[in-house]
Amino acid sequence: MTHPARPAPEDQLPLTPATFHILLALVGQERHGYSILREVESATQGTLRLGATTLYRSIKHMLAAGLIAECDERPDPTMDDERRRYYRLTPFGHAVLGAEAARLATLVALAQTKGIVIPRLALGGERG
Amino acid sequence: MNASLRPSPPRIVALTVWAYQRLLVLHPPAFRRAYGPSIVQVFRATCVAAYRQRGTRGVVALWGAALGDVARGAVAEYAALIFPSLKGYSTMQIARRSASVLFGAYIAFVLAGMGFAKLSEGVMQSSLPTAYPILAIAYDAVLVGSVVSLLAILVGGLPVAFAVLRFAWANGRRDILLRFAVPPVALLVIAATLWVVTMRHLGGNTAATIHTLPRVLTIGGLIAVFLAGAILSTAAMLDAIARSDIGEPMLRRTFAPGLVVTITMGVMLLAAAVWSIGLWRTAPALFWGNEGLLATSTVVGVALYLMLMVGTTVVAARALARGTAARQGTSRLA
């Protein structure tokens, strides 16, 4: 049986906002579902609130695409509910996240070349 | 508050989680089995947090979003089962999948078309088509369409079949060669069953013999064998293609004949619909009568075959559009 070539990161683009933020939430840290939910809500200052079903539909797709993987061990088994499932970003997921960020940056740059004034969003930056 | 002194979730939270858990029955079973417990766990944590912040009102306020989330998720998951997403697949995988789905849809369309032809047989042998040419024109359009689509399938499919055989032979792949044995074997089984049925003198479509149990069972068995043979043969061919490394360009070359097949399927569907409406307008007694297989309802048969034709045409068009879009995407990247 032949094994098809692994898709390139660009094949996964564009990402949905939910997928993008879930991947961002997993950068540098393994998290369980509720922790991802809180992190996404916090990072977007409440503008993106994921429902539990949406979260796990996204997780299902990301697992299938190899963007994330389920962790075999919980970060601290003594401090946690043993039924919780933890997820981590895979190197491929990292590459896809980078490709999506680059795609978005290209779009922003394109808009700027057309003279579009991009208001600075209140995500830790100052208005001006 | 210290975690150890924190009270257990109040009744409203327990009740909300219980109701939410029941609601998850809307999800497809496989998704529910895989993620149901985790979804409930996250929802429970959300409920507890909402209760701590705003009390009972906070928990009740969650329901609007939760209902929408579950309903949207259920629709999307069922839709994904029917039309799986190809996002993230390589263009090679999309090309193979598109060609395979198109072929499968065509075979299903042919089966529906054969049922339709059988149903219209009696009408076409009567004097009705002479009196009402619309019936003859529509029927002929279906026949011409079936020939054109078969030729297009052969033009697109035979090179792929030969390429698969060459690959299997060159690489000593017995598993693939064995799959090519399925259609001839299925054909032999169908021919043998047909011979047995013919030998059994089951009686014709007379009032006395048409609905006798042996006749219904025998003809039902023949149809089942025929359908099983067609399905197994198609599956074997598609599996043989999936196991072969025949290259994307070869599969892409099936899209042009695939377009002809899809258009022809649309034309045949239209002609079948025109024939059905023509029968309804010109011979309502026949339309509402029992001209179907084993003297079953004509209108039910017509509706069933037309629905199958619509479904398979939509699936074929969608597969072709996906395959073509992936091809264009490749061109843009290059």
Question: What does this molecule look like?
Answer:
- The complex is a heterodimer of chains A (about 130) and B (about 325).
- With about 130 residues, chain A is mostly helical.
- Chain A is built from four helices and three strands, in the order H-E-H-H-E-E-H.
- Chain A has a three-stranded antiparallel sheet.
- In chain A, helix 1 crosses helix 2 (about 35-45).
- Chain B starts with 10 loop residues before the first helix and ends with a helix.
- Chain B is built from twelve helices and no strands.
- Chain B has about 325 residues and is mostly helical.
- In chain B, helix 1 crosses helix 2, helix 3 (about 90-125) runs parallel beside helix 10 (about 255-280) and helix 5 (about 135-170) packs antiparallel against helix 10 (about 255-280).
- The interface of A and B includes residues 49 and 56 of A.
Helix content of chain A: 40-55%
Strand content of chain A: 5-15%
Query: What do the pLDDT scores of chain B average to?
Result: 84
Helix-and-strand structural type of chain B: mainly alpha
User: Which strand order do you get reading across the main beta sheet of chain A?
Assistant: 1-3-2
H and E order of chain A = HEHHEEH
Which radius of gyration of chain A do the C-alpha atoms yield? 17 Å
Topology diagram in text:
The complex is a heterodimer of chains A (128) and B (334).
Chain A: H1 17-25, E1 31-32, H2 33-43, H3 52-65, E2 68-70, E3 86-89, H4 91-113
Chain B: H1 11-23, H2 29-82, H3 91-124, H4 128-131, H5 133-170, H6 174-180, H7 182-199, H8 213-242, H9 248-252, H10 255-282, H11 284-287, H12 298-333
